[in-house]
Fold this protein.
Amino acid sequence: MNPVLSRRRLARVLIPSSLCYLSLPYVIFLAGWLRWYLALPCIGVLALSLRICVREIDRIAGTEQVSPDGSALKIHHFVVLLLVALLLLGISGAGGYGHQDTDWLKHNAVLQDLIDRPWPVVYRLEGQAVPLVYYIAFYLPAALVGKLGGWPLANHALFAWSLAGLILAMSWFLLLNRRAGFTTIWLFAAFSGLDVIGQLLITPAVARVRPELEILLNWDHIEQWGWVWQYSSNVTLLFWVPNQALAGWIATAVLTFAILHPSHKTHSLFYCGLTPLWSPFVTAGLLPYMLTEFLLEGSTLAKRLRRYVSLPNLCGLVLLAVVGLFYAAKLGPATPPSAVVIPHGFIWSFAPDAQAKVVCLALIWAFFLLEFGLYAFFIYNAKPDWDRKAGLLFGTTLVCLSLIPIYRCGSANDFVMRVSIPALFVLAVFLGITLHSPSQSTVKRIILIALVVLGSATGLVEVRRHLTGIHTTGTLLQIPGPGQVTGLSLWDRSTPKSEEILLQYVGSSQTPFFELMAQEDGRGGLSR
């Protein structure tokens, strides 16, 4: 059968599609939140930057030999990819398709408020105007559809939007693996750390040393075995936080492709600027890879810096500044006032006593070994065909995965779970390449496949829980009714935990963004 797309042609499709996918929510945000004389030039610069990036990177993908013909994406590969994407997303809860985990209480609340309320979204809490300040990119296209067609149509649009993002992410995974095959598609769906081993080893130890933590070690969600650390599987990310995972996978793939296939100009600041409205955690996870790209240049410092001088990178800085000012509203005076402080700091400061510090030290080494250490060993031992770019990319990934757990932010430690999204995606790419590397011995390949199969238990646990939820309700389509979704302003604030959750979604109106940049209607709503 003739290939549908060679890797070269696939790249020429994925690059513009991915950049447009990441950019569309920004266009909606700029138009819906900023005053018109700020929004118009920002949207214009964004559109022109997209044109420049697509044209320039398309030229690179069209002239460089990026793969042999044997790795082309054929019709049956794409059909399997589409089926896997539909099966996973169809039970994920996105848009009400399948069982929704508890995080969807928050997703649905944000989506409903974006539909029902004027933009910028403003709440009245204890008589004070409080703006919604959150990473809302994922919801904006569906919310716009919802404003025109209502809540059910918005949910269907959210599912379609999520499906488009998942297809892009999986296609990038095939491209970067340099092999379009069923095992590569399976690896994307199966990729996870060895949580099942951690669960089996840690449960009896915790029961003896820290019995109060035993409640975390259940078989409905086995990634909690690491106490305050969790590197989420691909299925877990898709089921719980598609708002961050989809953009994280796509942006990481685009930046990785740019690192491996450098052009005369580099547009990594633009790629990075397209992520904070999707997830500031993903943006933080991409920064080390931008540094890697900078270090790969063999010229003088002045020449390296000149390669970053371009309109797209200027646009990226503008987007970072606008979204940064939007998020800076969280640093203003809390309205209404709250005594709750979101926990953050280096991990050792959270250990209450010497015994906890010892447990923490032992657990973090087990976490390193089971989440990425064993994979890294096999990947490193199959590296003879790597060039300098691949070696530095892999080294950056290991450094990121080793340092991220040292810092904690939030009761659930979202910092570790979400900043790790880019590094885990790159690790999965290296793992896929290693599985098919001719330098890997048969014995090592069998062992590595066995580890991946063990890791896939995490995703299977997530799938089992969702299938159980679907069976319990007796229906696949479970779009919550209007009365079943509670807007953020109506959330219970009676406990410190619920107060902390609400603080993650709101900010202060007494900040430059809402006083000087937000639309007049939104500003007026804030001032009343």
Remarks:
- Strands lie at 122-125, 128-131, 344-346, 407-409.
- The first strand starts at residue 122 and ends at 125.
